[in-house]
Amino acid sequence: MGHGWEGAVLKLFRGRDFTFTVTGTEQVTQAFRRIHVTDGGLLAATGGAHPTMWVRLWFDRDGRPHQRGYTLVDPDPAAGTFSLEFALHDGTACDWARAAEPGDTIDATLQGTRFSLPEPRPARLFVIGDAASLPAVNSLLDALPDTPATIWCESAHATDEDLPFRLDPALHTLHTVPRRDEGAHLVSEVRTALPGLLGDDPSDAYVWIACDTATTRTLAAYARKELRLPKDRVHALGYWRA
Ligand SMILES: Cc1cc2nc3c(=O)[nH]c(=O)nc-3n(C[C@H](O)[C@H](O)[C@H](O)COP(=O)(O)OP(=O)(O)OC[C@H]3O[C@@H](n4cnc5c(N)ncnc54)[C@H](O)[C@@H]3O)c2cc1C
After folding, report:
1. CA-to-CA distance for 170 and 149, rounded, in angstroms?
2. What ligand 1 atom has the least distance to the C-alpha of 242?
3. Is residue 42 very low, low, confident or very high in pLDDT (cuts 50, 70, 90)?
4. Residues near ligand 1 with C-beta < 6 Å?
5. Count of CB atoms situated within 10 Å of the CB of 140
């Protein structure tokens, strides 16, 4: 499959192309599916992975290329493997994941992923996400193993209680918030709790946000403008459009 004008633009921005091959699948919950792949040389080319690293996968929709971001899960540079985790809903990418079988291939372009752990390292982490950003959240928790974290996970399915969060009960608190009013309920829950948790001196905190685009924008503006967190202590990226 060619990648159309979007592929041409990514090439201009030095996007690098790879083909992943499915080696196995796991239905983690009714609405969350893990696909194991070989990386087509990606991890060797990049010299490893960074937390929250993602790729643009190319799906075919009615003969047209359809590009969507997905996060690398447990990258193993020595083996040249990682997994992809799909929060399942209606959609071309999800349809591909539902049907994926060993031997299937998927094209990917590496362009735009960038993230460095904040310096100085935060003493406290506040994370707001959902099933789509769970792989990135887990990679962040793995990268900051001794850091206490409060996590709000917006949930759209009863089975989200069983999502594979990597929590250390001594360090991490998870609040599962049902998705209501297009994200407004999550915003309200965070607005109620976050100021008290941040306290008078938020300078040692770091806030990481990845929900639907509109909710992410609202929460990022709240953290930066109303809570007055410095720009480099808030990371926000919309993961999907409602
Ligand atoms: C940097 C980055 C990393 C990402 N990593 C992951 C990842 O590891 N795992 C993952 O599952 N997703 C991840 N996403 C989100 C994923 O790219 C989007 O959810 C994407 O829109 C799914 O494509 P689709 O073709 O299945 O559905 P689309 O064609 O985009 O949308 C079809 C319908 O589903 C709705 N929809 C789209 N996404 C969601 C969602 N997450 N929840 C509920 N409804 C939705 C849309 O509003 C639309 O009505 C990431 C996004 C970014 C930007």
Report:
1. 10
2. 47
3. very high
4. 54, 68-71, 85-87, 89-94, 132, 135, 237, 239-242
5. 25
124-236 carries CATH number 3.40.50.80: yes
CA nearest ligand 1 atom 6, residue: 70
What single DSSP character describes residue 93? H
CATH 2.40.30.10 fits 4-110, yes or no: yes
CATH 3.40.50.80 residue window(s) in the chain: 124-236
Percentage of the chain lying above the pLDDT 90 cut: 90
Q: How far apart are the CA of 196 and the centre of ligand 1, in A? A: 32
Q: Where in the chain is the domain with CATH 2.40.30.10?
A: 4-110
Rounded Cα distance between 126 and 155, Å, is 17
pLDDT tens, residue by residue, 116-162: 899 999 999 999 999 999 999 999 999 999 999 999 999 999 999 99
Mutate to test the pocket of ligand 1, among 34, 84, 89 (most ligand atoms within 8 A of CB): 89
Distance CA 224, CA 232 (A): 10
